Amino acid sequence: MRRFEFPVDRHHAKAVNETIGDIRHLQWSAALMAVLLGAGSAWLFVLGRPWSYIVGVVLAICALTSLFMVVWTPRKVGSVEDLYAKGELVPAVVSEIHPRGYTLLALVDIAKPDTAKPHYALVARTVRALPGKGYSVGARIPSTSVLGDRSTRSRGETYQMASIMPIAWGTRDSKVLAQAASQIDGVEWNLLSENISSSKKVRTSDGQFVLLDPADLPDELH
């Protein structure tokens, strides 16, 4: 696995990293749900009916589960430094420009660590903003892969979820960004450029990624 280590600017990441923002939004949603479920449970207990006690207990359990999500989510995902450190350095390019953001198309190996061969996929992520000046289609955005499963019971050779985080969300240093881009083989950048036209198909697919046929890959990626 190709990793890229760099000093993460936490203040910058907190301001622009949309992955961190998504986690924070999930926490707030879970906290709000816990409050609503807890209030509903309390009202049902006050109501004092036999059926209301049963429903109240169910709502109380759901409220506790939501509170657990508030605490568990950041611990499961880890810090922004952990996300960058655990992920693989991958190429991504601007593939679509929208009125309120961009779609990035990335080349990611979604094979699990014990899998003998790589499983390359095109991965799309629509972002609201990228630090720096305006970007055109084809602009190179070195990124880190973010992989996971929907369930701990998954036994497949590939991850069920795939996304990316631009290195630019973790640092303002242009030298670091240039270094990251230079560590990615030109074959990978070229393959992405050739597949920009597939961006919408990937973006609208289940999970926002599409596995590539090994026969369509250059020899360097086998």
From TrEMBL:
Coiled coil: none annotated. Keywords: Membrane, Transmembrane, Transmembrane helix. The chain crosses the membrane at residues 26-45, 51-72. It comes from the Bacteria. This is DUF3239 domain-containing protein. It comes from Rhodococcus spongiicola.
